[in-house]
Toxin-antitoxin system HicB family antitoxin
Amino acid sequence: MADHYTYRVHWSAEDGEYVGTVAELPSVSWLAEDRMEAFIGIQRVAEEIVADMEASGETPPVAIADRHYSGKFQVRVPEEVHRRLAIRAAEQGVSLNALASSRLAGA
């Protein structure tokens, strides 16, 4: 299961090392001087945590990659923001949904 998790490795100027993280286990990290060591380290820790959770009868988090997404979510914005976005969408000849989707994809 942990091999499907979402791993990231980035440099930490504060720590002076690479930091490996896993999105499904946000409180877990691994420091290493080498980028690959950080990647391998965080994977090992995640595998150990998942094994411990399973051994104790807990359900580990489902990998983000294995989750189903509907493609829909609702965002609340102030009325004026909604109005400005509707105007921009009309000016560009696209739907508000297409404008928002395009902007989110570029973020």
Q: What stands out?
A: Helices lie at 35-55, 79-92, 96-106. The two ends are 29 Å apart (CA to CA). The first strand starts at residue 7 and ends at 12. The mean pLDDT is 95.
